[in-house]
Write a structure and sequence with these properties.
Strand content: 5-15%
Shape: elongated
Largest sheet: 4 strands, parallel
Number of strands: 4
């Protein structure tokens, strides 16, 4: 079964802790992402499924608008978070004993999460782990969807597991 590696990484990036670690500077691989992938892989193997993880290559030009929108959302979240941080530091300079309301903390966490996404370090850590375990993976020149459909058409995989609707357009049997 072919699994979209990018969607797998984004799925775990929706967890609270992972979103926060993916916004650190300098960036580093989130151990939670690697743990999630390993746990997912073990469940798939336990179910008797031989997985093939397919990773995106370069996004085609048609996705440029969507990439810019996503980057804009992350930038806006980063600006909100940075402003909040500056405000907090100023308040603390004025009153070192200041305490914060729960909604202030939630607002800060929400703005930081908006700028989160799996980092290049996360991708490299997962690919390195897969390679070290000799787990089947395939890279795509562009989108993983087209590569998974090609593997299906060639009879290399029996099925495709993804949340992406592009495979309907590609006439996948899924």
């Amino acid at each position: 079964v072919a699994f979209d590696g990018g969607i797998l990484l984004n799925k775990v990036n929706n967890r609270e802790l992972t979103k926060l670690t993916s916004t650190n500077e300098p960036t580093y691989a989130s151990p939670e992402i690697l743990d999630y992938v390993e746990e997912f892989h073990n469940l798939v193997i336990a179910a008797g499924i031989i997985p093939c993880y397919v990773f995106d290559g370069k996004a085609p030009p048609i996705k440029n608008r969507e990439k810019l929108r996503r980057q804009g959302d992350r930038d806006k979240g980063g600006e909100e978070y940075d402003k909040f941080l500056c405000d907090v530091l100023q308040l603390l300079a004025d009153d070192p004993c200041l305490t914060f309301e729960e909604d202030d903390v939630e607002r800060a966490i929400a703005s930081r999460k908006k700028k989160a996404h799996p980092t290049a370090c996360d991708h490299a850590a997962v690919i390195s782990w897969l390679a070290s375990k000799d787990i089947w993976m395939v890279g795509s020149l562009f989108e993983a969807d087209q590569q998974m459909r090609k593997l299906e058409m060639d009879g290399v995989v029996d099925a495709i597991a993804t949340e992406d609707g592009d495979l309907i357009i590609l006439n996948s049997e899924m």
